[in-house]
Amino acid sequence: MDRAFSEQKYSSTIIRQMFLTLLPSQIIACIASTIGNIVNGLLVGNFLSAGDLVALGFVNPLLIVWSAVSSILCVGARILCGRYIGRGEMKKVDATFTTSVICGGVSGAVLTAAGLFAAPALAALLGDTGETAASTAAYIRGLSIGALPTIFVPLLMTFLQMFNDISYSLIGTVLLTAGSVAFAFMNIFVFHGGVFGMGAATSAAQTVTLLFLIARFVMKKDLPRLSRDGFSFAYTAELLKLGSSGGVAGICYAIRNAVINTMAFKTGGTFAVSVLSILNSSVGIFDAFNVAVGNVALMLMSVYIGERNSASMKKFARICIQVGCALAFMKIAVIFLFSGQIAAAFGATGRLVTETHLAYCLYSLCMPVNIFMCVLLGVYQGMGRVLYSNLVYLVNALLLPVAWVTIMSRLIGNVGVWSTYLAADVLFFVVLALILTAKYHRFPRTADDWMMLDAMTFSGARTSAAARSVEEVIGFSQGLMDFCRENGIDSRRAYLCTLCVEEMASNVIKHGFPKGKRRDYTVDMFVLCDGGELILRIMDNAPAFDPRTKFAITPEDAENIKGFGIRLVAKVAKEFSYQTTFGMNVVSIKL
């Protein structure tokens, strides 16, 4: 069990700051991914033929497949890298990076070849065998030029965000969005490239962004690197297994949307489809907040899994839910106040505005429930519960909504369609409650119960504390002697453990915390004793500070007192590593 020997009043500071550091970039990236689609639809609908607009609709499932491939790699990479970062195993991070890049290259090449050389067959497979088949094939060819960068851009952004280069990732997101819009306008008004040009414009934006991101990996030294011996089929299997829920999600959402559209047409004709079109075209901006919270939950939960830090896992899960729910209620207020204006912006008038407002309001009510589900998914994926993650997508994203819309659209008409998303989320938690009650023989009452955090068991004993003063560090280190003694650690290593904590944490407070600035600078200390091995992790939110470069980690002249403590720690440690990730400095030491 977790033990702490000093006051824990700062214990959530770093966890909260890491969450808030990652969240904005995730939100912006998710929003940006919807803007290009909106612009393409508006331009094609207003300046090209009706057949070209139909082509965009037919190709949508193909884009979902591409997104699913990229999602598998991104999710798998987040989980594996998070675990290795938590353990301080940076060589394995490079191996994961190498494996994911090779897998992305192979899949991107296959998608490009299929799109360029089998476009008519793909158009027929997507259901377009009529007069618009040529337009659909042309659009597929244009998009296929950029299949490779479409896979790589989100993958490289994932690694940038994990390794404290969030600002560059944001610049890449802005570049991708601006490029998509600019190239699309140039195609319409300068090159007159038709629907093929629209696809090629998207490909051009993805390619420019990919080159921009590659330049960053070439220039910045502390990002993951390709390694000759990094690729292995074992890493590939683990990557695909852990990321499989991303592929399952894509398939489930594609089928769900197709069924909902079909039932809407049967129930309310083109009017109902128009309402759904407006809803689906704009609601992605609101969904981006929920998806972003889930992505951050996945990344950081993986780190705490790697550390075997159950206390931080629980604190982090609660922070995710608290911030997510606050955002959800803000979105509900915005939708209830402005959904009519949103519908009017898409050209809706009269009854179409009223019905779209109703659909929006019903959709918004699921947001507090949905944010909990997104956190739940992030936690499950971070813990490696692949079966439960896939079960969530299968039940919540496919079985429940398809069953609800099929039955209720016949009973209560359009309202049965508009209420599908809300009903699916609520009914999912009823189903999950029954599953967890059967599994643990009691009803889940807390967030920890729902996320099965208490079911996570880690080997070894652990203790942790957070400090903002040298006195608090010393207080924690004094308790470490008792902790080591109780867990069978000999007196020599117990002394070295306290020495390492005091030297590294005190050094951060003395030299890393900027003087005279109002900020919650904190150093977080975590010690794990497992099988006679002591593992220390010192994390702080001060400006980047690498002790390996600031001071030589090999003993120098004895008269050179500066940095002597750090050099001594490096000498006695079995392993000594540093990385800056999620906006934090992290030193990992093994004794």
Brief summary of the model shown:
With 591 residues, the protein is α+β, with helices and mostly antiparallel strands. It has 21 helices and 6 strands.
Key traits:
single chain; 591 residues; alpha+beta; Heat Shock Protein 90; 3 domains; six-stranded mixed beta sheet
What does it look like?
With 591 residues, the chain is α+β, with helices and mostly antiparallel strands. The protein folds into three domains: 224 residues, no CATH class; 184 residues, no CATH class; 130 residues, Histidine kinase-like ATPase, C-terminal domain (Heat Shock Protein 90). It has 21 helices and six strands. The protein has a six-stranded mixed beta sheet, covered by helices on one side. A hairpin with a 2-residue loop joins strand 5 and strand 6. Helix 10 runs antiparallel to helix 11, helix 10 runs parallel beside helix 13 and helix 11 runs antiparallel to helix 12. The longest helix is centred in the middle third of the chain and has 50 residues.
- Proportion of residues in extended strands: 5-15%
What is the total tally of β strands?
Answer: 6
Individual helix count: 21
| Helix/sheet category | alpha+beta
What is the count of distinct domains? Answer: 3
**In sequence order, what are the helices and strands, one letter per element?**
EHHHHHHHHHHHHHHHHHEHHEEHHEE
Distance between the termini: 21 Å
- Unreliable stretches: 1-8, 553-559
Radius of gyration, in angstroms, nearest whole number: 26 Å
| Biggest sheet statistics | 6 strands, mixed
Average pLDDT metric: 81
Order of adjacent strands in the largest pleated sheet: 1-2-3-4-6-5
Q: Outline, from the CA principal axes?
A: globular
Helical residue percent? over 70%
